[in-house]
Amino acid sequence: MNPTTRWITVAAGLLGLLGVALGAFGAHGLKATLEAHGSLETWRTAVLYHLLHAVALLALAGWRDSHGGASVKAAWCWLAGVLLFSGSLYWLALGGPQFLGPVTPLGGIFLLAGWLVVAWNAWKRSEP
User: Fold this and answer.
1) Domain range enclosing 117
2) Mean pLDDT score of the chain, rounded to an integer?
3) What is the DSSP letter of 30?
4) Distance set, CA 22 to CA 16, 33, 39, 77, 111 (Å)
5) Which terminal residue of the chain has fewer beta carbons within 10 Å of its beta carbon, N or C?
6) What domain count does the chain have?
7) C-alpha separations of 104 from 79, 83, 98 in Å
8) Is 60 exceeded by the pLDDT of residue 49?
9) How far apart, in whole angstroms, are the C-alpha atoms of residue 65 and residue 73?
10) What is the pLDDT of residues 12-47, one digit of tens each?
């Protein structure tokens, strides 16, 4: 496994681990707090997008060997997207400062950009 594929795979594993841990923590340890804030659904949304992109990163590591630099761009977009999108939702769900609200859509843009990189690269590489 080359170093780039390795870091994408490690990032996928750590993102998946953290997503499962935060999902369980929200469902058990923070449930009362999240319900009191009326933000249990916000937490669930954060976990859903977090875990979905951990799995996507893992698939990207396998795709990387034939798509090189595009996979690295997509990986960075998804990592930034999870940090900004899910991270801001986690914080907001726990009663964090409201100024973080505009960070969430910025994270969503990074998530979308990663998917666009994947689609564009597949389109460019289509074989006859």
Assistant:
1) 3-124
2) 89
3) S
4) 10, 14, 14, 21, 19
5) C
6) 1
7) 14, 9, 11
8) yes
9) 14
10) 999 999 999 999 999 999 999 999 999 999 999 999
